[in-house]
Write a structure and sequence with these properties.
The complex is a heterodimer. By secondary structure, chain A is of the alpha/beta class. Helix content of chain A is about 65%, strand content about 5%. In chain A, helix 10 links the parallel strand 1 and strand 2. The termini of chain A are far apart. The N and C termini of chain B lie far apart (about 120 Å). Chain B is extended.
Chain lengths: ~350, ~575
């Protein structure tokens, strides 16, 4: 055990998550034999996966000393499971099983903190509320966002594209289209998947369609930077994130604001990201995370950036769901700042890298 | 036990089947999700590439625009610079000219001539650079007008002859008789090309022959293509030098010709000009035997005048009028300030007169369709002349004329020329016109000649008088070998900077009634004006001078005031010429 104590409780939990998840599933099926009848073999598989997921979130939450991350995850999970006819009670049984397994099979001096966080999550199951739709007809471009989403759900990307072009012709700005249509519909697609209204294939399709529309819009607005030496931004998504559309839009916002931007995408190895920062002589790097259990990867990445001589000076901003949930989290990962949305990110960037600083 | 085990066995088999199916479903779900993930990653990568592509496209476009812009800026700079140099250079040449005509020793004369030659050489180079920069900036435009190739050839030969003799060469020219004498093209630029080729031919030929020939290459309904050759019996050009000859500064690469002056821009300018005319230029040459430079250019035929006039007058009356046409100088009318009023009930007749006036350059025309309308429109306007039909509904021309004369008398207005338009040519009718106060009679159908005659007779002198004497201006332009109006431009600048002061002085002298000083001042400005072809203003000045000498200064202040608008008009016309 002394050997394992080198890791923090959160790190230890990540290492042991798979084994613990198996034990949780075993325990839950002992407790609720009817589960097999209700969900079959597929259900058991799911239960194990969900348990693994829950443990990962719990681990990240502990790692970042941020209970909010886990609590938010519980809200999300409850909503997701309700779509699968998994009740609040089922969820509590599962979480209690996790707790029992942790108490019996997980050893770490900091275990009480882990259990504390888990308890907060169990308490939250009762209070978590179902989420409303992100698309409101009476909000800015709300009706258009609804129409856009409807086209995507009907797999009619041509109509969706036509709608966007029509809006542009009407004088709606690209930024407004990004915020009120693309972003809103992406959120809504996530929610619809969560409540099982659409399947995972539809979710992928909708995202891909929006990306393709975004790329068809590039020639409309991408211009060579006017100033001699524009500020440069390198942006990327940590881990194997499918949720990269947000940072893509953010990068485009910077480009529209006169920055010279380089979007590296998801899954970029840390060393190539550091190399790109140096190659592009970037003034700032923006890193995004959607999955809370990737937050620690941001932390590691930032440490590496700071440790490298060629990139130590660079300003780093972070964003994404975990940072929105816990607004102090950005400090923990060692960033220079965080912004909840693209416009605020640009304001933040202006204070971190003022235009005047550059020759 | 057996029955139990059978039932149990069945359940077991079923359960196993369900489990297998479930596993298959789970596996295929996993597979599906993996593939979807892969698909999404691939899509993201594609979008990334597309973004990169769009970005570099935008950068390339910007870089291209910048390059184009830089090129334009460079050409603009060159144009401004050469202009800044040319103006003082013309001053140097002009002053040297004046100096030469003064009393100088032979030694001094040689020095001044050297100054002059050097300055002219420099000016020629600068002119070439200016042309080149204009072409590179895409600013070169052709000025098309009627070109008489025979006259043009004649001028050129006269210009080049002295230099040809210097090199002990002979020059001969040939022009195809079928080449029409009123083709449309940029005569100035054709002359520039020919002069360039000729002076090259002369430069590289000693004691030899130079020939120009203009052949008709193609003859179509609307145009003639000319094949123009300049050949010499000079040193010729080696084949490997021939291909670069039309490139700018190609001459610099020809060591054997280092003693021959020039920027080496001439041929490249010729090529650009020929191409601007949609023609081609090339050469054939044997080293030691001479060279032939040739260019082909298409020139439009000018439309026949008769065809133009068909619409504006009936053919029957055209013939007799035509013979007189040459006797009547065409009106050179600038913008007239006051309109002419046509009173005519037949819209076609009215239209014909308007077209004829337009042909004379008069577009400021009002119309009325009967006498009553004419009188009411007359009340609110100041006209230069009224052309009045006699027979019209509502109120005829006689009544209208009477009304107008009455109004003029009542309001102390100057009587306006009223010209009757009548088909009736009886003596009686004519008398009736004059009796009611009309000034003259135009017999219908109105033709261009009779209308021109009437205009000459009745329009105020300021309108009909030629503002500029083009022959003088042409001579000035020809002072410059390249046919560029630079000398003229300089002269105009000088004239414009002095004249306003002189006019003011005349005004002061007129007010003071100093006849002698007035005569001298008018004379001085008159000479200056005449020398750059300002015709009408000079005549006014001449009249002022004459009256002042005779101490007849009663109307002088009024006449001096008339000089100001006359000067403004001349200035406008001159500016149009050089811009």
């Amino acid at each position: 055990m002394a050997l394992q104590e080198k890791e923090t409780a959160g790190q230890q939990l990540i290492i042991e998550a798979d084994r613990l998840a198996e034990q949780v599933t075993h325990m839950q099926y002992l407790k609720q034999p009817d589960l097999y009848q209700r969900f079959g073999a597929k259900g058991r598989e799911r239960t194990k996966q969900d348990s693994l997921y829950s443990l990962s979130y719990l681990a990240e939450s502990v790692l970042m000393k941020s209970p909010a991350l886990f609590i938010n995850y519980i809200s999300w999970l409850k909503l997701l499971l309700s779509g699968y006819r998994v009740t609040e009670e089922d969820l509590i049984v599962n979480l209690v099983a996790i707790k029992k397994v942790l108490l019996e099979h997980f050893e770490h001096h900091d275990k009480p903190r882990v259990v504390d966080y888990l308890d907060m999550g169990i308490d939250h199951v009762k209070t978590a509320e179902l989420q409303q739709s992100y698309i409101m007809v009476n909000s800015t471009l709300g009706a258009e966002a609804g129409e856009y989403l409807e086209y995507l759900l009907q797999a009619d990307r041509k109509q969706a594209y036509t709608l966007i072009i029509t809006l542009l012709d009407q004088g709606i700005s690209i930024k407004d289209i990004y915020i009120h249509i693309f972003q809103k519909s992406q959120y809504e697609i996530g929610r619809l998947w969560q409540i099982s209204r659409i399947n995972v294939a539809q979710e992928h399709y909708c995202t891909a369609a929006t990306q393709s529309i975004i790329s068809r819009l590039y020639p409309y607005w991408l211009q060579a930077s006017g100033s001699e030496r524009p500020r440069r931004l390198v942006s990327a998504c940590v881990g194997a994130e499918q949720h990269e559309i947000g940072i893509r839009m953010l990068t485009d916002f910077f480009e529209m604001d006169g920055w010279d931007t380089y979007y590296l995408g998801a899954n970029v190895p840390d060393h190539s990201l550091i190399q790109s920062i140096a190659d592009y002589k970037a003034d700032m790097v923006a890193i995004s995370v959607t999955m809370t259990f990737h937050v620690h990867l941001v932390h590691e990445l930032i440490e590496k950036i700071r440790a490298s001589e060629k990139t130590a000076h660079i300003k780093i901003i972070v964003g994404g769901l975990p940072f929105n949930i816990d607004q102090g989290l950005w400090k923990l990962v060692g960033a220079d700042g965080y912004a909840p949305d693209a416009n605020k990110a640009i304001q933040l960037a202006d204070t971190l890298v003022p235009v005047a600083e550059l020759g | 036990m057996n029955t139990m085990s059978n039932a149990e066995h069945e359940i077991m088999v079923l359960r196993k089947t369900i489990e297998d199916l479930s596993h298959q479903i789970i596996n295929s779900k996993h597979q599906e999700e993996r593939i979807l993930s892969e698909f999404s990653s691939m899509n993201s990568e594609l979008v990334n590439l597309q973004r990169l592509l769009a970005k570099s496209n935008a950068e390339l476009t910007a870089a291209r625009e910048e390059a184009v812009h830089a090129n334009h800026a460079r050409a603009r700079f060159l144009a401004i610079m050469t202009h800044e140099i040319r103006t003082p250079m013309n001053g140097v040449i002009g002053m040297a000219d004046i100096l030469l005509s003064s009393d100088l020793s032979d030694e001094q004369k040689r020095s001044v001539m050297l100054i002059q030659e050097s300055a002219e050489l420099l000016l020629g180079m600068i002119n070439n650079m200016l042309d080149l920069s204009k072409m590179e900036a895409g600013k070169m435009q052709l000025q098309e007008s009627t070109v008489n190739m025979r006259l043009l050839l004649d001028h050129i030969i006269r210009l080049i002859e002295p230099k040809v003799r210097e090199n002990e060469n002979t020059i001969s020219a040939f022009i195809d008789y079928r080449v029409e004498s009123d083709l449309i093209g940029d005569g100035g630029r054709i002359r520039q090309i020919l002069l360039n080729l000729l002076s090259n031919a002369n430069k590289f030929t000693k004691n030899g022959k130079i020939e120009i020939s203009i052949q008709l290459k193609e003859n179509s309904a609307n145009s003639q293509a000319l094949h123009i050759e300049v050949s010499d019996t000079g040193i010729g050009i080696a084949p490997d030098h021939q291909k670069n000859l039309f490139q700018p500064y190609a001459q610099a690469d020809r060591p054997e010709q280092q003693d021959v002056e020039g920027t080496g821009l001439g041929l490249s300018i010729c090529k650009s000009l020929v191409e601007l005319m949609e023609g081609t230029i090339d050469l054939k040459s044997d080293k030691g035997k001479g060279s032939t430079f040739w260019f082909d250019i298409p020139l439009k035929k000018s439309p026949k005048e008769a065809e133009l006039l068909v619409q504006t007058r009936p053919t029957r009356t055209e013939q007799p009028g035509r013979q007189e046409e040459s006797a009547m100088p065409p009106l050179a009318i600038g913008q007239i300030e006051k309109p002419i009023l046509i009173v005519e009930d037949n819209p076609i007749n009215s239209q014909v007169i308007q077209l004829q006036l337009k042909k004379m350059g008069i577009t400021n025309v009002h119309t009325a369709s009967n006498g009553q309308e004419a009188v009411s429109i007359y009340l609110s306007h100041n006209y230069l002349m009224v052309l009045m039909d006699n027979r019209m509904p509502v109120m005829d021309g006689f009544q209208a004329t009477r009304k107008i004369r009455e109004l003029e008398a009542a309001e102390m207005r100057v009587a306006i020329p009223i010209i009757a338009l009548t088909a009736n040519t009886s003596q009686e009718d004519r008398q009736r016109c004059l009796d009611v106060g009309m000034d003259d009679i135009l017999t219908k159908p109105v033709n261009l000649d009779s209308l021109t005659r009437i205009m000459h007779k009745w329009l105020p002198v300021t309108v009909t008088e030629k503002i500029l004497d083009m022959s003088v201006i042409q001579e000035i332009i020809e002072l410059n070998e390249a046919g560029d109006p630079e000398v003229l431009r300089t002269l105009i600048e000088m004239y414009q900077s002095e004249t306003p002061k002189k006019l003011e002085r005349l005004r002061t002298l007129a007010a003071a009634g100093d006849a002698e000083a007035l005569a001298d001042a008018a004379h001085e400005l008159k000479s200056g004006s005449l020398s750059i072809g300002i015709n009408h203003l000079s005549q006014l000045l001449s009249e002022i001078e004459k009256r002042s000498r005779q101490q007849d200064i009663q109307e002088i202040p009024e006449m001096v005031e008339a000089l100001f608008p006359a000067y403004e008009k001349a200035k406008q016309e001159l500016e149009q010429l050089v811009n």
